[in-house]
Design brief:
single chain; about 230 residues; alpha/beta; Rossmann fold; Arc Repressor Mutant, subunit A; 2 domains; 5-stranded parallel beta sheet; 4-stranded antiparallel beta sheet; 8 helices; transcription regulation; phosphoprotein
Length: about 230
């Protein structure tokens, strides 16, 4: 089955290049130039992934991201941002974007990012066998990509799910943020605040008290580790 990608960008030059590269990589690509059209397109035929520019006429990319995250299907989102828009980029990650690229960017890199996110969502063949990870009331099924806490299904983004799985598969081991960026995101370099934002969001979903985390703990001067228990 061909994966569908929705490109949302009002810059026709950028969108033409992006669409051409994604189509060449084998994706079924649809392009719209504003936020309202993007929401309508997702409602009509949900794509496997959305490439979303922040600077859009009318409804901006952050609001589009917020509304997409309110949907139950959890469509993955890769944001396109201007180099200097760090605050907007971090806010986008807090809203649930799965990845980002700063403009100007390499179209080839974007294709690789799209492929990476789709692989993690099951849109492309996964290499790891399905299994079930348990920590007291927290149960994570990696095959169907479902996480439950005390029987209630958690709404996790692609990166949040992958980060949780990675940490649970390596309990008690401390990981530097750079290590997590490479192992979970597949980036050999990048802004490590991405990891911090995702850890914060994940704690809000799996911790009884996110301000005093019991599962995903901070190792000062190093990074983070997962502490299994019976909560």
């Amino acid at each position: 089955m061909t994966q569908r990608v929705l490109v949302v960008d009002d810059d026709r030059t950028v969108s033409d290049v992006v669409c051409r590269y994604l189509e060449h990589a084998g994706y079924d690509v649809t392009h719209v130039g504003d936020g309202v059209s993007a929401l309508a397109a997702v409602a009509t035929e949900p794509p496997h992934l959305v490439v979303l520019d922040l600077m859009l006429p009318g409804l901006d990319g952050l609001e589009v991201c917020r509304r997409l995250r309110a949907r139950p299907d959890g469509v993955p989102i890769i944001m396109l941002t201007a180099r200097g828009d760090e605050a907007d980029r971090i806010l986008g990650l807090q809203l649930g974007a799965d990845d980002y690229l700063g403009k100007p960017f390499s179209p080839r890199e974007l294709v690789l990012r799209v492929r990476s996110v789709l692989r993690r969502t099951g849109g492309e063949p996964a290499t790891a066998p399905p299994d079930v990870l348990r920590d007291g009331g927290l149960v994570v099924e990696t095959g169907p990509r479902v996480a439950r806490l005390h029987g209630t299904e958690l709404t996790l983004t692609v990166r949040e799910f992958d980060l949780l799985v990675h940490l649970m598969r390596h309990p008690v081991r401390a990981f530097r943020r750079a290590e997590l960026l490479e192992r979970v995101w597949g980036w050999s370099f990048g802004d490590q605040s991405t990891v911090t934002v995702h850890v914060r969001r994940l704690r809000e979903k799996v911790e009884a008290d996110p301000a005093n985390p019991r599962r995903i703990v901070t190792v000062w001067g190093v990074g983070y580790r997962y502490e299994p228990g019976d909560a």
